[in-house]
Design goal:
The complex is a heterodimer of chains A (287) and B (407). With 287 residues, chain A is of the alpha/beta class. Chain A has helices at 11-23, 43-54, 59-68, 81-87, 89-98, 115-124, 138-147, 171-179, 195-202, 212-235, 244-286; strands spanning 3-5, 29-32, 75-78, 101-105, 127-128, 131-132, 152-155, 186-189, 207-208. Chain A has one domain: Alpha-Beta Barrel (TIM Barrel), CATH 3.20.20. Chain A has 11 helices and 9 strands. A 5-stranded parallel β-sheet of chain A has the order 1-2-3-4-5. The radius of gyration of chain A is 20 Å and the shape is globular. The two termini of chain A are 24 Å apart. In chain B, the strands form 3 sheets. Chain B has a 6-stranded mixed β-sheet, sandwiched between helices. Chain B has a 4-stranded antiparallel β-sheet with strand order 1-2-12-11. Chain B is globular, with a radius of gyration of 20 Å. The chains are: A alpha/beta (287), B alpha/beta (407). At the A-B interface, helix 2, helix 4 and strand 6 of A face strand 2, helix 1, helix 8, strand 11 and strand 12 of B.
Chain lengths: 287, 407
């Protein structure tokens, strides 16, 4: 399950990344609604949110992005509490469902603050996904298990989002404590960046979320493509037809298309590798 | 009894699940400490012998004459470290020690809360990390040096608006990562429960003292109590003892470059309810709920949110909220220096600026230039109590640059 910040690095590249993710075997796509103050996120997601906001991306743009792929892959939206509150709980839930969104994660809305939104979401046919963390007490895991209607988001590490060399070994204990309480699928995220880590997580959880690693790869590829385009233009300015405006527009379109291709390639590579690792783990488990 | 977590529709705990057990632990520890005489005795001892309480109430005679009422200043600027912030920090650091947390983090805007936290950590031998926005690191350089001399690590925050809001984001991220070993000393009546109620309780000593002092000297309560409001801790600290009295309460926010300029910190005056830094309160935000950048010449008021109890007090009408501009605050800074020999913190200068709106037009001098806000008239017999929440040493170079004073 890949996570990408909606509208990052631009709407077209983001769409190409989603397309690539579907191609690489994503079962669900998690789309982030960029927020000015994402306290649960590490530097990579923060930077992507900031860039998307600078580019003028709104919650409606992110919903429109999901709607483009409606029917092809289920979407889960990640939005901070104030985004949903400012939009209006009911309106947000209704529009999300109309855009093909099935689940909603609100990282700063713990289960005991979520009652109002959970009810509104359920009424609209949207599943509010609760989060469980290694620091959650047993009593809180009871609340999480009771609130879950689709899956439980298991936070794999004590910390914010972002790649780590080692996951720290807190997830198996959390998963075991949840399994004793519920048959709801457990999907793990935060800190998981490599095929090896994905396989390690898949050995205990039912799903794996890859966010910061994907965003970092896309950002890197897009930056590379931009440099390549700039270099190519510098090398051959004389060869261009001098009808300036039309040519500049074509260059800009070429640039965006090239960025989108580069972003999609990077996403396909990372997610393809992770999908292969997950398939291997699954085969290992069944044999 | 567990401290208040809601103030009408405001407050709550809008933070990642990872932090909730730590907030539960803190609520329980605080509830226990509050009813524990040995904790209170230890805190009272520190407030007296270390912080220098009780702070005096000073009759500012020349200022009084200028505005046509009796102006009393509650001298929180005389607290150790130079502001009211130490009252809360000593309470929270004692709690951290009780909870066995050896690492303490804090956010700071003006640097006063950071200095107070670094001070208390030095006193108790705790590790201290302070987050401060890059812009504030520049404009409050003196306090950065003070924190480092006290043994604290100061982490410069480059994200977002590079001010108090982003320092608080970064402190929350640190806490999410190190929650098992770390106590987060929030410096205002903001953040998730139990902070707004707990910080208010630790600051309420200001109003309790002042109420007794004014009653003792004048045989009656003040007519109006005035304090500046950023997050709002010095204001709630002095207001709280007067909530049930027939006393006007006035909070003064930062109008920055003017309320119509869009560059201000007047969350209560111009914000609308939203969720920021763990609680629901008035927030400066755009139509999509993106938090707006605040602005104030004073780093401590340069914040797009405000404590949730203030939101409830605004809605109920018990407290009136005004806003004073950067220019008014600068003029108030100079006036208080010239009239009373006191350099107020730029934050506190906003409260003085409100009082100066009543300055008599016939008197001459810098203090009586026209102001942006509506004129204020006090009755001759009015007794005004202003919280002078901090001293302005930290601001002298900012003020000198803005006013072109020779160095």
């Amino acid at each position: 399950m890949p996570y990408i910040t909606g509208g990052f690095p631009d709407m077209d590249t983001c769409a190409a990344v989603i397309e690539a993710a579907i191609g690489a075997g994503a079962d669900v796509v998690e789309l982030g609604v960029p927020f000015s103050d994402p306290v649960a996120d590490g530097p990579v997601v923060q930077a992507s949110s900031h860039a998307a906001l600078q580019a003028g991306v709104t919650p409606d743009d992110v919903l429109a992005l999901a709607a483009r792929f409606a029917g092809r892959v289920p979407f889960v939206l990640l939005a901070y509490a104030n985004t949903v509150a400012a939009y209006g709980l009911e309106r947000f839930a209704r529009r999300a469902v109309a855009s093909g969104v099935e689940g909603l994660v609100v990282p700063d809305l713990p289960v005991d603050e979520a009652g109002g939104l959970a009810a509104v979401a359920a009424g609209a046919g949207l599943s509010l996904v609760p989060m469980a963390t290694p620091t959650s007490t047993d009593a809180r895991l009871d609340m999480v298990a009771a609130a879950a209607t689709s899956f439980i988001y298991c936070v794999a590490v004590t910390g914010v989002t972002g790649a780590r060399a080692h996951l720290g070994g807190e997830l198996p204990g959390l998963v075991a404590r949840l399994r004793r309480r519920t048959a709801t699928p457990l999907v793990a995220g935060f800190g998981i960046s490599t095929p090896g880590q994905a396989a390690e997580v898949a050995a205990v959880a039912d799903g794996v979320i890859i966010g910061s690693a994907l965003i970092a790869r896309v950002a890197e590829a897009v930056a590379g493509a931009a440099t390549a385009t700039a270099v190519a233009e510098e090398r051959a300015p004389a060869g261009r037809v001098a009808t300036a405006a039309g040519s500049a527009r074509a260059d800009a379109a070429d640039g965006v298309a090239e960025r989108a291709r580069a972003g999609a390639r990077a996403a396909a590579e990372l997610l393809g590798g992770i999908d292969a690792a997950l398939r291997q783990t699954a085969e290992g488990a069944t044999t | 009894m567990i401290p208040d977590s809601r103030f009408g529709p405001y407050g709550g705990r809008y933070v990642p699940e990872t932090l909730i057990p730590a907030l539960d632990e803190l609520s329980a520890a605080y509830a226990q400490a509050r009813d524990d005489r040995s904790f209170q005795a230890e805190l009272d001892g520190l407030l007296a012998d270390y912080a220098g309480r009780p702070t005096p109430v000073f009759h500012a005679r020349r200022l009084s004459e200028l505005v046509g009422a009796t102006v009393l200043l509650k001298r929180e600027d005389l607290c150790h470290t130079g502001a009211h912030k130490i009252n809360n920090v000593l309470g929270q650091v004692l709690l951290a020690v009780r909870m066995g947390k050896r690492r303490v983090i804090a956010e700071t805007g003006a640097g006063q809360h950071g200095v107070a936290t670094a001070t208390a950590c030095a006193l108790f031998g705790l590790e201290c990390v302070v987050y401060m926005g890059a812009e504030d690191v520049v404009r409050q350089e003196l306090n950065v040096v003070r924190m480092r001399l006290l043994g604290a690590t100061v982490n410069t925050v480059e994200s977002g608006t590079r001010t108090l809001k982003d320092a608080m984001n970064e402190a929350l991220r640190d806490w999410v990562t190190n929650v098992r070993s770390t106590h987060y000393v929030i410096g205002s009546v903001a953040g998730p429960a139990p902070y707004p109620a707990m910080v208010r309780d630790f600051q309420a000593v200001i109003g309790r003292e002042a109420r007794e002092q004014v009653l003792g000297r004048y045989g009656r309560l003040p007519d109006e109590v005035i304090a500046c409001v950023g997050g709002g801790s010095n204001a709630l600290g002095i207001f709280h003892a007067f909530l049930d009295d027939d006393v006007r309460l006035t909070g003064v926010e930062a109008a920055g470059e003017g309320l119509e300029s869009g560059r201000h910190g007047a969350s209560l005056t111009l914000g609308r309810p939203g969720i920021l830094h763990g609680s629901r309160s008035y927030v400066l935000q755009d139509e999509w709920g993106q938090i707006a950048a605040a602005h104030s010449v004073s780093a401590g008021l340069d914040y797009p949110g405000v404590g949730p109890e203030h939101a409830a007090l605004k809605d109920s009408g018990r407290v009136t909220y005004e806003a004073a501009s950067d220019d008014e605050a600068l003029r108030a800074f100079v006036s208080l220096a010239e009239l009373e020999g006191l350099l107020p913190a730029l934050e506190s200068a906003h409260a003085i600026a409100y009082v100066l709106r009543a300055a008599r037009p016939e008197s001459s001098g810098r203090a009586t230039q026209p102001t942006a806000g509506a004129a204020v008239r006090f009755s001759a017999g009015d007794l005004l109590l202003v919280n002078l929440s901090g001293r302005g040493d930290k601001d002298v170079h900012v003020v000198a640059d803005l006013l072109g004073v020779d160095r």
